[in-house]
Amino acid sequence: MATHASAAATHPAPHPATRPAPDPVTLAVLDNRLRAIVEEMGEAMLRTSYSQILNSSRDFSIALCDAGCRLVAQADHIPVHVGAMPWAAKAVAEAFAGDIRPGDCFLLNDPYHGGSHLPDLTIILPVFGDGSLRFWSVVRAHQSDIGGATHGGYNPGATEIWQEGLRIPPIRLGEGGALREDLIRMLATNTRIARDFRGDLMAMIGAARLGEQRLLPLLARYGADALDAAVSAILDLSEAHARRILATWLDGSWLGEAFLDDDGFGQTDVAIRARVTKRGDSLTVDLSESDPQTTGFVNSSYPNMRSAVAMAFAFLLDPEVAKNDGAFRPLEVIAREGTVVWAREGAPVTMCTSHCANEIVEAIVRALQHGCPDRAMGGWGRRFRVAITGQDARRPGRRFVWHMFHARPGGGGSARGDGWSCAGEWHSAGGLKFGSVEMAEARFPLLFETHEFLPGSAGDGQHRGGLGGQLCLRIESDGPCRANTAGDGARHGAAGMLGGRDGAPHHYRLRHADGTERVLKTKEVGIPVQPGDRLVVEAGGGGGWGPPEKRTPEARARDAAEGYA
Amino acid sequence: MPGYTIGIDVGGTFTDVVGICTDGTQTLAKAASTPADQSEGVVQGLRNLADALHLTLAELLQQATRIVHGTTVATNALLERKGARIGLLATEGHRDVIEMREGLKPERYDLRLPAPEPLVPRRLRIGVKERLRPDGSVEQALDAASLRSAIAALRAAGVEGVAIGFLHSWAAPRHEHAAAEAVAAAMPDAFVTCSADVLPQIKEFERFSTTAVNAYVGPVVSRYLGRLKARLAEAGYRGPLFVILSHGGVAPVEEAARLAVGTALSGPAGGVAAAVESALQGMGQDLVTFDMGGTSTDIALVTGGEAALGRGRTVGGERIALESLDITTLGAGGGSVAFVGPGGTLQVGPRSAGAVPGPAAYGLGGTEPTVTDANLVLGYLDPENFLGGARRLDLDAARRAVAGLAERLGIAPDACAAGIHALVNARMADGVRLATVRRGVDPRDFTLLAFGGAAGLHATAVARELGLRRAAVPVFAAGLSAWGMLHTDLRYELSRSAVTAGGLPGDTALRALFDGLEAEGRDRMAEWHGGAVAARRSADMRYGEQVFEIAVPLDGIDWQGPALADQVRAAFHARHRALFTYDLPEEEVVLVNARVAAVGVLPRHVPAAGAEAAAAAPAGQRRILLEGGAATAPVFRFGALAPGQAVIGPAIVESATTTVLLRPGDAARMDSRGWLDIAVPAAG
After folding, report:
1. Which candidate, B450, B571, B557, places its Cα nearest to that of B511?
2. Domain extents for chain A?
3. What pLDDT, in 10s, does the model give residues B637-679?
4. pTM of the prediction?
5. Are B256 and B467 in contact (CB under 8 A)?
6. CATH number of this structure's domain B490-600, picked from the four choices 3.40.50, 3.30.1490, 1.10.12, 1.10.10
7. For B206, which residue in chain A has the nearest alpha carbon?
8. Chain A 363-422, CB below 8 Å of chain B: which residues?
């Protein structure tokens, strides 16, 4: 049975309008202020976080929600977290109903209780004004490890969530402004890099507290009720903004499909199906025809599915539309529990913030390509991770772990031009930095023989996709290493739109010194690697936009001259 | 015979020229900027300064002992994409580094944003067979045939400049230098630049991008500075010509041509130099600069009397990783347009009315209200005395523009004007907060140093919003950058990466690394001037697996003492604690870059104390609209205020180039240098 998860049903009802909206100047000042607060919290987080994954890739998100858990402001960090934070605030509000006090600090990560996937921890702080709860200050950040069977949390072998790491339902991590050190010790003990865990957790709490510190003077200066009224007015304006844009799209109902390569347990071409209906200034996304949930970790949690739909919607609107509850009100989401987009409690889901989140986006954009052709963009590439671990002769006795962020896939073409080359995947959309080749060589036993664009990898089109990267990496470890992979996109390339062609799929292989090769699958553990082996990566390009025959001769001549094609 | 030092700042509209005489008197002159060839406006500005001093241009230049210049030629070439046609020689297999941009794309939610054109098109980025390892050893020797054919291809393409970026040249520049010699031999007129000479630091994207920018702006900057030098020589100038660089120090004109990329922030650098000088002169050790112009506002921090430096600068979308003043630019200034944004709320900026049509009050056809229009409607500006009366402001046009917006918002026109003013103040305060949280400092004990034509009307409101208790507006508010250039020293930045697979180098290697850099810096400085030279040592360091380095000052290190590496390690832990609240004493410490700044101290003229005078009476009064309602405010002439004279808000203090609004509760005092030092009450 399809569960009807409409915006109205899942978000708390808006406050009754007890007082008139503030004047337009106060509204503009407060709107600016709230956005500036989340930006400031993000800067504080960036400055104080410890682990590489946070301070390099900015894989964290910051939001303010109101007392009713409506998203008020979210900073532009990782798109896959957009719209996800209210679910975390709601989980806390429900778990601790009637027992929430100033100075409390809550934590969760469980995807079945308000989280996205286990590596993402979320800190939720209540902010009080005039004696009652007024805001939630929310900080989510990806941890470099969360326990479980494999280092880093991505376990392609997991068939249940308990093999993926430590589950944290909403817990009270602190009260009266003090933290529960015993709880933190218990949590840290269950991760492989306790120091990173603690450092990042403290940074998250610090950023959330900064949000509180900034909100309190606003509450004092304008009054809590006036601020509530302003928030409601801001959300209403954003709703109107989104609806004005939606109204310009064609009405209709379309089916969009996207396929995961496989679930790592032999099930291939797992379908995500989005039936999208646009009427007037409203949009319904129905994912209930998607395939049943899988054995492996490509299933989505409910909040992650909701944020993937919100992400697709945000991509198709104008970038300046505020990311708040109002802007997402025109969107109704229907899904069915037990499908790959909404797994039943207990199923593994760690891959979901990239896969199947990216496929949910792709299916929705595909469905809407004829409804808003100037907005629908060619598909962005998929994530295919590789991590190699072994010994470095230059640092005896110290194991190295190297995570590949290089040879990124291409972005999609669009009405405004060709796609970005090597800018990555839907879920990060150019927000994930790959490290310096020189620094990697200085610190790891690796030699990057080639790291360049891969000509011809992009999907052709009136505007072609961006190019994927190619990498030839010589392993110079002291003795054998092992590699793990986690990802998708070796069967399915990034989707072309409106007649544009799909980008090439990924092709990764291990080339041994004797010239023989082993093709790498997207979900493997314990791959043996010998010194002298080469990791040869050909990353997929982005999807094309518009029919290739409409590509201008000048553009084709340029592609040839520059060596892009 | 008196001597003069002369500072020249070329802005978008005006070229400001400040002359300081050995007797301490200071004179400001202005001329219209000449974008086609900035040196024309410069010479005109010098002529105007000579006039003001009752000298001929030749007399002034004969008495000038130093000219310091801030130029926007490199910045404009980057912003307008009008640099040279250039090629890039790269390590084979790695020619796309500058177009890959580390996988990053701006504007997270704009997936349709078109990708920028790289400064060097792919066909002119040519791989050369060669390869070094991180320890500087040769993996593959530089292949002469491959180099020859690459150079032939660039020559055939007719490039004016060649950037050379080989992997690991930070560890050993020999392949790059050999390639540069070959290019110079084959293309004698080309501007050739090696990444190992521009920025000998590990991390290829930052090094290659900075080098490509250097090649791109180098030919343009060289030609410009050559013209300027010739014009000044023709007019009779025989002294040294210095250019202020992005790091806030100055260098001879030849160095600015060689490292043209280092002039990308030359424009706003003078203002920050002025802030550092004002800290020395007693304005407090911690300052926020607030330089509000027509289209944007620059914010920088001075902490402990020193300007903050950073390496994350992007100009015109291009990464420049040289040490630069850490200046945050906000897209809001006097010319910013107020409008109802697509989201339905009132917005101010970043769209600007520019110089033409400009604010509605300019009467040049602008119909949308700007910040300047709002300030005029509120009575803060005098329509008869804008830019010293050079431009009459049309109050009715401003009122009409504001009323149009007010109608759309459903509020009264006066409320709308007050709203524009309040919103821009709120945005400025947010900008300062963000700049301070980025540096990990609390701004409340800082002094707001306001300059640029438009800052005086907003300074004390922004200070209140931030909880700052002190603001200052110099009498040269509109020409402070030119003044600041005369109060900074010669500076040459050296850096060298020293990354190893393990932790820090040993004591001996560490000492040799820094001693070598310092000796090189002192040699260079000796070529530039004969005065005193100081050297400051610092390092970029991080914990083992961290990605970002932090800058660690090494002032307190005993370089000849024992356990040098341990001392350096301890300095890093302490700095990490100061910045991030924690340190990790057990963790491996990595030194990425060693840095030395060689500073050649230049003489300063001590400002003359203002003559004793009786307190000036107001020159008039004006009705102004404040948050609390209408008030009648006395209007004082800035230049007429006596040293020590107090002015209590509400009041207006105006000069030909700037207007300062004192709000109720503000208490200003004219200090001995002619700066308005304002005590701001706590926000109520």
Report:
1. B557
2. 3-11+18-242, 377-565
3. 998 999 999 999 999 999 888 899 999 999 999 998 888 999 9
4. 0.93
5. no
6. 3.30.1490
7. A436
8. 375, 377, 380, 392, 394-395, 405, 408, 411-412, 414-422
